[in-house]
Amino acid sequence: MVTLVAALGLIANLIVARILTHGAQTLNTRAALLHVMGDVLGSVAALAAGVVILFTGWTPIDPLLSLLICALILYSSFNLLREALHVLMEGVPPGVDLPEVGRSMAALPGVLSVQDLHIWTLSSGVVALSAHVRLRDLKNWEHVLHELRELLHERYGIEHVTLQPECVTHVLRPTPGRGGESALD
Question: Could you tell me which of 32, 34, 62, 39 has the C-alpha nearest to residue 50?
C-alpha cells in the first residue's frame, strides 16, 4: 500500500514540477519548485523504502532515506534563502558592478558626476536604479536623461530608473571672518 501511494504521489508531483518549470522563473516559483521537488524526493524515498522493506524486512531504510532527503532540501533551501535575503536587503544584483555603472553614467557628455547611486532588485529579474546626476546646467537635462536611460537599458538591462538632476552653478569659497566656513556664490 505504501508503494502504491508513493507512486501516485510521485506522478502528481512530477506533473506539478513540469508546470512550474515552464512558467516564469521568479523567486516564488523557484521556492514552490523546491517544495515540489522535496515532495518528489519524498515519494521516491517512500517507494524505495517500501520495496526494500517488502523484500528484505529492513525497516531502518525509511528513516535513513528521510534524513538524506532532509539534508538535500536544507542544502537547496540555503541558496534560495540567501538570494531572498539579498533582495530584501536591497543588495546590488549579482553581475552588476556598481562603480562601473556610475563611471559609465558620469562619462556621458553633460554629466559632471553621479552621486548617491543605488542599484537593487525590485523582484526577480527587475532591477531598479536611483541616483543624483550633477550637471553644469539644466538646459540639456531632457537629452542627458534620454542618453542615461538608453545607456542603462542597453548596457546593463536596467529599466526602472529614477534620476534626480542637480545643477552645479555654485562654487564653494571661504567666507572671511567666519572661522574658515564656506559660503555659496
Answer: 62
